[in-house]
Amino acid sequence: MGKDTKDYELVNRKYVIGGVAILIVAIYIVRLFTLQITSEDYKKSADSNAFLKKVDFPSRGVIRDRNGQLLVFNQPSYDIMVVVNEARNHLDTLEFCQTLGISREEFDRRMNTIKDRSKNPGYSRFTEQLFMSQLSDKDFSIFQEKMYRFPGFYVQRRSIRQYQFPYAAHVLGDVAEVSPADIEEDDYYQPGDYIGKMGVERSYERQLRGEKGVQILLRDAHGRIKGSYQDGALDRRPVPGKNLTLGIDYKLQALGERLLEGKIGAIVAIEPQTGEVLCMVSSPTYDPRIMVGRKRSKSHRELSRDAWKPLLNRSIMGLYPPGSTFKTSQGLTFLSEGIITPQTPFPCYHGFVFKGLRVGCHGHGSPLPLVPALSTSCNGFFCWGLYYMIGNKKYGSVQNAMNTWRDYMVSMGFGYKLGLDLPGEKRGLIPNAQFYDKAYKGSWNGLTVISISIGQGEVLLTPLQIANLAATIANRGYYIIPHVVKKVEGEPLDTTYSSRHYTKATREAYDYVVQGMRASALGGTCHELSRYDFEACGKTGTAQNRGHDHSVFMGFAPMSDPKIAVAVYVENGGWGATYGVPIGGLLMEQYLKGSLSEASEAKAQTIQEKRISYGLDER
């Protein structure tokens, strides 16, 4: 009995030992399979010892103005790359830091950042990682002489943007290093790559950036480059980015920026027939050349702290009451809806006076119909027009009347983004019946909302939308979505920027509004435009403000064959005729004539030298 039990235990032990041995062998086999077949570590290590994959960055597309003037181009730059797996041993860190002019702490910080997967999600110790970007020619030459002493470090030739002139910063934008969010959004990018951050550089990034190339270089056992692998058969050449031609006229842009010096405001000019933006000025602005290379971060930080907000593109982000420029849209609506005829007169007793409500106006003849009402910018006329429209029984209710009015405004490009090809455009505000029902608990009428008829109250537009209104009137009833880019090399422009958008107003209504704007230029509130030998049409605006009123102008020229439509907005500039009209006229002359006359240049110089006090730190 004892012997049998002993034999049984020996047999069981044999099976246990055998099972353990088999398990150990199986684990080794699985591990070997993992290391040699499924794991990339050894393959990467072997490949990194034999090959070096070197990215060839494409040259970014250049940008020109509508006349072929170069605005943005590329300059050579040099980045230092590191393969961490190769740099771990035999690196004289002290000499390396002295060569680049950095401290040991800075070296450690950069290396730690490279290895931090939260900041560098594409990190691999076998591939090139960005250590330092944008070396100058001098620093590059010093480093190149000693590079053989620093195993694992390489030089990557790149290019950086250069801006030819100190103009159009908000339009052109700038280029900077990609963020983790950029990398996550598009796997084209790797840490250290550059991407457009603002303006055209951002909105046309895919066209401008091109396609990366790659060189596969063969290395010997000591890591020295021996030449191209398979004579470059597997290399891929970079594809340069596409060049852009803008609708911007840089001389017109330069003039606009001159005229708004020392003022807060915006200018937008559009070619009516094409929708191409001829100039887009936001003031204050900044020199785009300070947003280049390694100094960009410091410059951006200083601009973002500036009380004048120079980074804000007021031409598309500024939300303003349009003032009396908005009266043109009201005249179009009242005529098209049959609320008035071209001969309908309304009284103006120094303003709109009815049932205890008064909306003031300056002195002029009364009563008067539409064309002279536009010429003199009569508040009373347009208040009466809106009052009769909102109360008209044909709509059935004030809500239906209000929404009909809103539909006309939306058809003219208000209340929503126009779709400009730049980032950051705002939509403005056009109220509807629901807006007022909520504000007044359903109890309101035409008198309640009367101020919207003269571009005040709840109505808010961007300078771009005001310029687009001028372009629509110039075209007698349609607009093409404004766009900054005129042409992309090698591809057609998006059809979005060639389609006509017709408004709800009639062609006859536009003809009468054009007459009113021409009359304004000949002897009305825009009479200064009469000095030009081209037929200019204009409409002033004096937008009420808690402080000094804003000076606004909208117009186009020539009347019969419009080439330019322009909007000018100067915060706290006073009457529309104070700044808006003279600035608008000078821009028209510059574009239509190619230069300013001697008298106009003197006027431009006077306007340029004028400063408006805004209670900010004066520049």
Q: How would you describe what is shown here?
A:
With 619 residues, the chain is of the alpha+beta class. 37% of the residues lie in helices and 18% in strands. The strands form 6 sheets. Strands 2, 3, 4, 5, 10 and 16 form a 6-stranded mixed β-sheet that branches. A 5-stranded antiparallel β-sheet has the order 12-11-20-19-18, sandwiched between helices. A hairpin with a 6-residue loop joins strand 19 (550-557) and strand 20 (564-570). The longest helix is centred in the first third of the chain and has 37 residues, at 2-38. The radius of gyration is 34 Å and the shape is elongated. Mean pLDDT is 89; it is low at 41-47.
SSE order and pairing:
Elements: H1 2-38, H2 41-50, E1 51-56, E2 63-64, E3 70-82, H3 84-87, H4 93-100, H5 104-115, E4 129-135, H6 137-146, E5 153-163, H7 169-172, E6 175-177, H8 180-185, E7 194-196, H9 199-203, H10 205-209, E8 213-219, E9 225-228, E10 244-246, H11 250-259, E11 265-271, E12 276-283, H12 296-305, H13 314-317, H14 327-336, E13 351-354, E14 357-360, H15 370-376, H16 379-390, H17 398-411, H18 433-440, H19 463-474, E15 478-480, E16 485-488, E17 500-502, H20 507-523, E18 537-543, E19 550-557, E20 564-570, H21 580-593, H22 598-609
Parallel strand pairs: 2-10
Antiparallel strand pairs: 1-8, 2-3, 3-4, 3-5, 6-7, 8-9, 10-16, 11-12, 11-20, 13-14, 15-17, 18-19, 19-20
